[in-house]
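Students often ask why we bother predicting the structure of a whole assembly rather than each chain alone. The short answer is interfaces. A chain on its own may look different once its partners are present, and contacts between molecules only exist in the joint model. In this exercise we take two input lines together and write out one structure for the complete complex. Read the inputs first and try to guess which parts will touch.
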Amino acid sequence: MTMQETIAASAAAGAKVFPGSDSRRYNYFEPKGRKATHYEDVTVDVQPDPERYLLQNWIISFGDGTPTYSKDWTALKCTDWHGYRAPDQEWERTHYQRQSTIVGMIQNVVENARRAGAPQRFDRAWVAVLQNHVGAFKHAEYGLGTALMRAQRYGYTQMVNNAILTNASYKLRFAQDLTLYLAEVGSDIGNFDLDAGKAHWLDDPIWQPCREAVEHIRAATDFLEQYFAVNLVFEPLVGELFRSGFVMQVAAAQNDFSTPSVISAAEADYERNLANAVELFALLLRDPAHGEDNRTMLQSWFTHHGGLAVKAALQLQPLWSLPRVKAASFAEAFERARGRVAAIGREIGIDADLPALPPVEVGQPAAAVTDAAAE
Amino acid sequence: MPDGLTLNKITSQKGIGITEAARRVADLGWTPSYVKEAMSFPTDYKISKAPRDPMKQVLRSYFPMQEEKDNRVYGALDAALRGDMFRNVEPRWIEWMKLFLAIIPFPEISAARSMATLGQLAPGDDLRTGFTMQMIDEFRHSTIQMNLKKWYMENYIDPAGFDITEKAFGKCYATTIGRQFGEAFLTGDAITASNIYLQVVAETAFTNTLFVAMPSEAARNGDYALPTVFLSVQSDESRHIGNGHSMLMSVLKEPDNHLLLERDIRYSFWQNHMIVDAAIGTIIEYGTKHRDKNKESYAELWHRWIFEDYYRTYLLPLEKYGIKIHHDDVHEAFDSIVKKNYVHKIAQFFSAGWWANFWRIEAMTERDFEWFESKYPGWYDEFGIWWENYAKLSKPGSVPITFADTGYVYPHRCWSSLVPCVIREDFTTDEVDGELFTYASEVDRWTHKEAFAAEYQGRPTPAMGRFSGRRQWEEVYDGWDLADAIQDMGFVRPDGKTLIAQPHLSFEEKDMWTLDHVRGHTIRSPLLALREMTPQQRQAHVEEYRKGFKIRRV
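Now the answer. The structure tokens for the assembled complex follow.
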């Protein structure tokens, strides 16, 4: 019998038994749980590492000798970068399913609202808030998305980079959601100035500290500083404050049920991105060799970006006075944000306690409160 | 319901047009005024003109479209299992997927990372959505390919090789070539890497052979999964080609960039040819059992996709912008395939080193010989005896063909492309920074010595990448016994002794080679040996090498 004739009749699993015929799992990494998840199978080790299997090291370098991937691209250190797994376990299929579901949800809400003529019944003062301030906020989301898109280049493992990549995808989608939503409801409302949002973003004093905070995140050269500042600082102190603490609580009272639905997608996105980020930074702070140095670095990033974010949050306070029906107060929203960021800090192991706002006296100008808190 | 009235017409709302939507989305960007963003990705190019988005897409139409594409892919994979695809699939084909799918997810995810670069370098925000979609597309490709590989591992008769896939990617002498390809997407000058090498050349030209020609061959071998996944992948590529062209048009506007563009198009085209044609040419021509003489050969496919579609309709028109195109390289690349047997010599090389693989290569048979001879007249004279020897030496206990008295001369490795220097007459050497290197051709020599340098034709090019690392696999294992090297790489089955690679497709344990069968032979680096020679010995060696060899029957 020749070698050709001994080939099995079927090429299906189990057609023959021979050494290795039942080796049907990727066997080159340690799963986090008892068995590898699908996410781990399609993610782990796709970005190679000279300290694991990259026998010949990186074979192209930058002009200054920096290799294709370098641990020096962040000030944080880790004994084992490969230990990180994103809690949301996202890979391409789950990412598209989730993004597509959100797109469909928003589309349904907006179409139904418009079909019912809802935008024409929005309170007139609220329409101005949508036009000027929700319109301004979409630029903040976009700025964070572009910062994260840059950051996803620099992580030392596929797990870190893919978590940042999906975060960028969510942020950039949401910035577009808001843009197109405002354009569509604006066309129903009439006389809705779609350029006003950007004008407020660029020039309105209310938004300048926010823009400053976002620009500082964009300009940070350490990719993990960017990831940290987005998810552990800006989002709880400014993003959620504006989205949940203001728009989602106030809109219904202005006859607007559609804007909170659009905004709610970003809140759900953030829960996942926050979980991914907390897991990473908690891992870095638990690191037996580098945990303390990492804590010092994160604390300094928190001081820098936290200061900018608090300034940005406080400057937004006048927005709570704009709707005709006052359904929420800035003080309560800020207090929740303060509690949220402190809880996140406790979760990873840094001190993120911020001073409370001074008690607001009836009739006290907003600026006075702002100045006091900033001090 | 009146004629012409549909549910869609009743329920749809007047929306904003796609042009207006794209314009509004592009207006999300602004020029920072509080802190200037540092340009983190180095480039020697100047870019002042903002690239335009030719596709005018927005993410809310992108995500549902991609989800639908995914549904079809995963539905087809389920259907393939229900239809018992693996009962009839050709193992010769699936074995090569162990190599191909070990390589490709890394270049894909590298492309995702490189969108960070282009997103930051491109002035304005018009093309940001295009880059964003490409970033997510590449994330899709990388993980969908890892999923496909897992699916093969779970359902194909011999999972060994799939089970160590990403480890194998880091260790193998052949995957090094794929790493050169993937790293080139994201390392060095940002425009060279992400725009020219990746988008303008790899995606616009060579994905046609990668993602269109190869799936056709898969289907001919009973593999319906690869076409399903890769044609879906290819449907994303048109977006990337559009991104690349738009960015290129911005770069072109600056006359100072023209010299660099000439350099980068030349380097990228040649290296893509060297790498993609080596790998995909071999898989298509040697991984198939389908020998219908009416089907196109790789040479014919290349002429259609690369020469006609890409060179004539994409590269040539760039000349009107003042970019010098190296026509001779394109013709030389084609000649290397049709006249110099590039693909056949690479296949010969892969089979010569079969024991260091993590997939199986079976011998070519009479039916294969017939087809090769009809497509490449003269093929049998040059390669027939090699494959007959290979079949004879495929039984365990034979001398590994590399060390048998066949007349084969183990090739030098090209320092630029990392592909072996198989076209012997084109082999060349040079010194860079006082050290001797070997190259497959003059363009490869130029790539290392002139293109990947701190200065190009008198112009400082500090951003250009450099070749680094332990580039030659043979150097890593120089002086090692075969068995020890195989064990070190981990290319051994779970019993600890049977090789993953086999020079045949027999699934009988008695036919399978073990470490003991290959022990006693030593790996030697041709480059280290060359460096140790005196200048006279080197010259004689190079002249002898260029003469080639004649295979003897064992």
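Check your guess against this: The first helix of chain A runs from residue 38 to 43.
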